[in-house]
């Protein structure tokens, strides 16, 4: 039975409009990208995804789940792609469903790098990475979780094709009806593997110095901006997360400040920062104040990681973020914006249905009015 609804929250600043790039968003609540593994085996989005995202269209901005830019970029089974015409066509009713309800939706462009398994790669190939360093974690395959393997280091000559894959995916996203794209440079995936000196041991133009390690990220950002327009591009960073067995950068404050400063020349719509450990503690080791990145960035700053209504309210009142991204809360609460506005209780998510399956644990969570009626 639900608890009684507390007084509405009207003074938090979470529910006022905000300009993000070319768009005027209805509120400052973003739906964070959430891998749900509901696509078909070949990465084609399925009709059920239209219902899922439409249910959550009241978010000021939906950032759709991490989406593979190429077959090589895949690291989890049943995740969608955006690299062929069939996938683009299958995304169109999804974006249209969100737009029909007045929502805005970006898609997160994803290459996992070493966080994969040969069974997920074309012809059973090894996953690729900046360097041959094995991550001691598991990847979600069609037969369940399997240990990751030692990746193959990318040849310098191969990197241009990765950049081209990002360009093609960004262009496809616009054709699919997305309002924009988010470059996934966080959570220990390919772009962050290049950026951090703990996972990049290269000696070519993409390794060694901070400038070289950031080269791929900047090349990707430039080509995506050229494909979409800067006001339809955001980027996600996770300066201190240990997720996916990525070791810390030796000087994260300097590295990520360098990245943000140089991204300003591209005029991106937003910077999306995971504060602390992804889905873990918010504490930032080493005295690195992430507000440095907010102060350096010229666009909208979206804060993410472990936010509830109280923390989000405090962040907005103190001017620590322009928008707040909620992840797991959106899984179980399609009407999260209204629940936060009313200060209403939230449904608890069922972890057993996070990945794979059908409607159960995906589109069947009750909305507030249904839950209230059942509790009476």
Write the layout of secondary structure elements.
Elements: E1 18-20, E2 23-25, E3 29-31, H1 48-55, E4 61-68, H2 85-100, E5 105-110, E6 128-129, E7 138-141, E8 144-147, E9 152-153, H3 159-175, E10 180-185, H4 190-195, H5 210-213, H6 215-228, E11 233-237, H7 252-263, E12 270-274, H8 291-296, E13 300-304, H9 309-317, E14 323-326, H10 328-332, H11 336-342, H12 368-375
Parallel strand pairs: 3-4, 3-14, 4-5, 5-10, 6-9, 10-11, 11-12, 12-13, 13-14
Antiparallel strand pairs: 1-2, 7-8
Helix pairs in contact: 1-2, 3-6
Describe the structure.
This protein has a single domain (18-375), classed as Aldolase class I (TIM Barrel, Alpha-Beta Barrel). Helices cover 30% and strands 16% of the residues. The chain is built from 12 helices and 14 strands. It has helices at residues 48-55, 85-100, 159-175, 190-195, 210-213, 215-228, 252-263, 291-296, 309-317, 328-332, 336-342, 368-375, and strands at residues 18-20, 23-25, 29-31, 61-68, 105-110, 128-129, 138-141, 144-147, 152-153, 180-185, 233-237, 270-274, 300-304, 323-326. The chain has an 8-stranded parallel beta barrel with strand order 3-4-5-10-11-12-13-14, surrounded by 4 helices. A two-stranded antiparallel ribbon has the order 1-2. The chain is globular and about 55 Å long.
Structural class: alpha/beta
Number of discrete helical segments: 12
What is the alpha-carbon Rg in Å? 20 Å
Give the N-terminus to C-terminus distance in angstroms: 8 Å
Please tally the β strands and state the result. Answer: 14
What string gives the helices and strands in order?
EEEHEHEEEEEHEHHHEHEHEHEHHH
Major sheet: order of its strands? 3-4-5-10-11-12-13-14
Q: How many domains in all?
A: 1
**Could you name the ranges where pLDDT drops below 50 across 5 or more consecutive residues?**
1-10
CATH architectural grouping: Alpha-Beta Barrel
Q: In percent, how much strand structure appears in the residues?
A: 15-25%
CATH-level-4 superfamily name: Aldolase class I
Counting copies of identical and different chains, the oligomeric state is single chain
State the CATH topology.
Answer: TIM Barrel
Question: In percent, how helical is the residue content?
Answer: 25-40%
Q: What is the overall shape?
A: globular
CATH C-level name: Alpha Beta
């Amino acid at each position: 039975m639900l608890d009684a609804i507390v007084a509405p929250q009207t003074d938090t600043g979470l529910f006022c409009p905000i300009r993000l790039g070319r768009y005027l968003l209805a509120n400052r609540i973003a739906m964070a990208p959430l891998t749900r593994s509901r696509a078909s085996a070949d990465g084609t989005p399925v009709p059920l995804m239209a219902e899922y995202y439409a249910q959550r269209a009241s978010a000021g901005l939906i950032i759709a789940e991490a989406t593979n830019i190429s077959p090589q970029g895949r690291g989890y089974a049943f995740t969608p792609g955006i690299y062929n015409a069939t996938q683009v066509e299958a995304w169109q009713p999804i974006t249209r469903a969100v737009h029909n309800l007045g929502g805005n939706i970006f898609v997160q462009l994803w290459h996992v790098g070493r966080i994969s398994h040969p069974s997920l790669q074309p012809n059973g190939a090894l996953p690729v990475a900046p360097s041959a360093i094995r991550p001691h974690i598991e990847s979600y395959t069609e037969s369940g979780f399997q240990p990751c393997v030692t990746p193959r280091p990318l040849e310098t000559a191969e990197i241009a094709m990765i950049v081209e894959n990002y360009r093609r995916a960004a262009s496809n996203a616009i054709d699919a009806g997305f309002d924009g794209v988010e470059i996934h440079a966080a959570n220990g995936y390919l772009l962050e593997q290049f950026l951090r000196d703990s996972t990049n041991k290269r000696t070519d133009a993409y390794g060694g110095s901070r400038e070289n390690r950031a080269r791929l990220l900047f090349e990707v950002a430039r080509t995506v901006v050229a494909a979409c327009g800067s006001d339809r591009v955001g980027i996600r960073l996770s300066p201190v997360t240990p997720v996916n067995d990525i070791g810390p950068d030796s000087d994260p404050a300097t590295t990520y400040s360098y990245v943000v400063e140089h991204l300003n020349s591209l005029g991106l719509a937003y910077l999306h920062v995971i504060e602390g450990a992804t889905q873990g503690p918010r504490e930032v080791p080493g005295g690195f104040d992430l507000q440095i990145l907010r102060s350096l960035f010229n666009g909208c700053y979206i804060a993410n990681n472990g936010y509830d209504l109280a923390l989000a309210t405090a962040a907005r009142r103190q001017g620590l973020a322009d928008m707040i991204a909620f992840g797991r809360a959106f899984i179980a609460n399609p009407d999260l914006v209204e629940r936060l506005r009313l200060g209403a209780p939230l449904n608890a998510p069922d972890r057993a249905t996070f990945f794979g399956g059908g409607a159960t644990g995906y589109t069947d969570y009750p909305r507030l009015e249904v839950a209230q009626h059942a509790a009476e």
